[in-house]
Amino acid sequence: MLIDAETYQRILGDELRKLRRQRGWTRKELNQHLQSEISLQTLATYELGTRQCSVVRLVELCVAMDELPQDLLAKVHRRVVVDEPGRVRVDLTKVIADAQPELLPLRRWAEDRLNHAAPVASTEIQLDLSALERMAELCGIPTVDLVGRLRKLAS
């Protein structure tokens, strides 16, 4: 299995940002809870996934936000690598950006879902078989065709 380091790093940053926001903290407030001094710009680059975070720094960030490092890494790993059996991962922003005319009902659904999501909610979701079957029916295409198109969008 190949690991896409860039994606892993971006999703780790996204999870760090979610943790901080769940606590209602600004980056400055998070920085005040850390053992060591780091710049706000460095925190921002960790959250954006544009800078790698050392293991020690990651543990420090997790401890400050009362999160077990292994739990955070498990969340990241699930988002990057593992699709649950019988489910297909879908990035709603990619669905919205896609121009395939058959997927118009799916695009409308994705837009509605994102418009009603919490501000820190992920744009990625996993759809089970029954949801995929209903969406395929709305799009007027076979389920297997829809799954193939969604997987292609994800790559």
Structural class given helices, strands, pairing? mainly alpha
Number of helices: 9
Could you give the order of strands across the largest sheet? Answer: 1-2
Beta-strand fraction estimate: 5-15%
Order of helices and strands: HHHHHEHHEHH
> Spans with pLDDT under 50 lasting ≥5 residues?
none
Nearest-integer average pLDDT: 88
* Distance between the first and last residues' Cα: 15 Å
- Can you tell me the overall shape? elongated
Query: What integer value in Å does the Rg equal?
Result: 18 Å
| Largest sheet composition | 2 strands, antiparallel
Q: What is the percent of helical residues?
A: 55-70%
Number of strands: 2
Task: Write structural notes for this entry.
There is one protein chain. By secondary structure, the protein is mainly alpha-helical. Helices cover 63% and strands 6% of the residues. The protein is built from nine helices and two strands; from the N terminus they run H-H-H-H-H-E-H-H-E-H-H. The protein has helices at 5-22, 27-33, 40-48, 55-64, 69-80, 92-97, 104-115, 129-139, 143-154, and strands spanning 87-91, 124-128. The protein has a two-stranded antiparallel sheet. The protein is elongated. The mean pLDDT is 88.
Task: Describe the structure using short key phrases.
mainly alpha, single chain, two-stranded antiparallel sheet, 155 residues
Provide a quick synopsis of the model.
With 155 residues, the protein is mainly alpha-helical. The protein has 9 helices and 2 strands; from the N terminus they run H-H-H-H-H-E-H-H-E-H-H. The protein is 63% helix and 6% strand.
